[in-house]
Amino acid sequence: MQFNLADVIESVTAAVPDRVALTYEDQNLTYGELEAEANRTAHLFAEAGISHGDHVALFLKNSVEHVTSILGLIKIRAVPININYRYTQSELEYIFTNSDSVAVAVELPEHQRLLASLLDACPKIRTVFVVGETTDELRGAAERRSVAVVPFSDARDLSPAADFPARSGDDLYLLYTGGTTGYPKGVMWRHDDFFRKPLSGGNPYGDEPRRDLAEIASAAKEFPELAFLIAAPLMHGAALYSLFTFLILGARVVLKRDFDPKQVVEAIEKDRLQVILIVGDAMGLPLVDEMERRQGEVDYSSLFSITSGGAIWSTSVRDRMLAVKPELLLRDNFGASESGNDGALTIDESGTLRMAPSPNMILVDERLEEIPPGSDDVGYIARIGNVPLGYYKDEEKTARTFPTRADGTRLAVLGDMGTVESDGTIVFLGRGSQCINTGGEKVFAEEVEATLHGHPSIVDALVVPMPDERLGQLVAAVIATYPDSDELTLDAVQEHCRKSLAGYKIPRAIVLVDEVKRTPAGKADYRWATSMVSS
Among 3, 45, 88, 272, which one is most buried in terms of CB atoms within 10 A? Predict the structure, then answer.
């Protein structure tokens, strides 16, 4: 059958209505209560004129309203647009206009003021949904443009019934990429493909996807009432995938307003967390710092696993987590907005990342021909199977990233590079766009970053190329250190890196900063890092 995400969530709700679905701060909502709130939100959108196929930008931080907006929009076959709330004015204007959003949901006063300054430049926006009080700036800008302002609180008086038209597996879900190396791109997923790939067919811990809604509902009844904390903001693809995955399982999703390591550690005991989802070292480092500080003070007995996705997660950070609790299961998910969940990476003693053989992942050369197992050739990691339709309004990038082979097979080729071993295992090298060519030798930024994160004084680091007349490029690192650490020198960095990296991979220059700039989800900002090296 063809799956629609709203149909799937409603089936789970019918199976476990009294189980807690969402914990946000000190508020608990059962599946039945979350369903009623999502239905009221759906009616709010519908009464304001939002209908099938309309795009609605969610300019929101984590909140109950953010969750009910996502669910409410897909219930009426509309399309949620994830917005990075730290975008600049020009980036926001781009994404509002590029996504053809006809409405925006917004909350914080500073976000409302930004939106007010952009309404004249975004003629397609006809409605603004406001969580909380509306600022004078937004109200005035909306009146000048004849844009309707709808308070979210109006939803309280609307019907909690799920009286919506039939939906389709062909309904669109549009997920915007992080945009850390350029403007974000909207990845177009069919609901059915979204369910089967990013959401693992509703069965992330099994081998076979669920066959129908009845099987999904039955599995939710049998699934233990586990608590999963999503540390990343919901505007990030990994967090969104996790939200849907855990709701489909019938689990309890725990959300925080912002990523605060202290709050996350306290929630382990308070909410009896079993699983924490982070985004690489940017969250893993401050989290393990706090776990070490609170060891013996906070009860970690319920915590079963820490899972990462979307960014590099170094061996040193994992080792420190295991030192706090040796029996932890650490899972490093490999995936992207354009591919969903590709599986779990394993890491060996030298820091090499490997992906077990999979029928949905191959290695191809520049002609898209498959590289045979056992070859030493470096190629592009390609995903096959349930891939997106392409990038929204960008045929050129769609053709480049989602090519079709001569046999009709569609691929997702994102620039991740690797080699393939004789048993089909793929060795992950890094993203080609972050590859540094120094005298003909290729250096993948992620490998050097993972090594730098193992230095006891380094709290975060990004690696970028620096121009060089003789070698073309040199390896440079932008580094932030712990406040109480000694001043870090280039010699000390190089000495540390020589223990595990070949000589040509060692940074030849460092720039020390107070804080390494990342997105709220912990994604690297390589444009910023490059500007720091070149300034």
Answer: 3
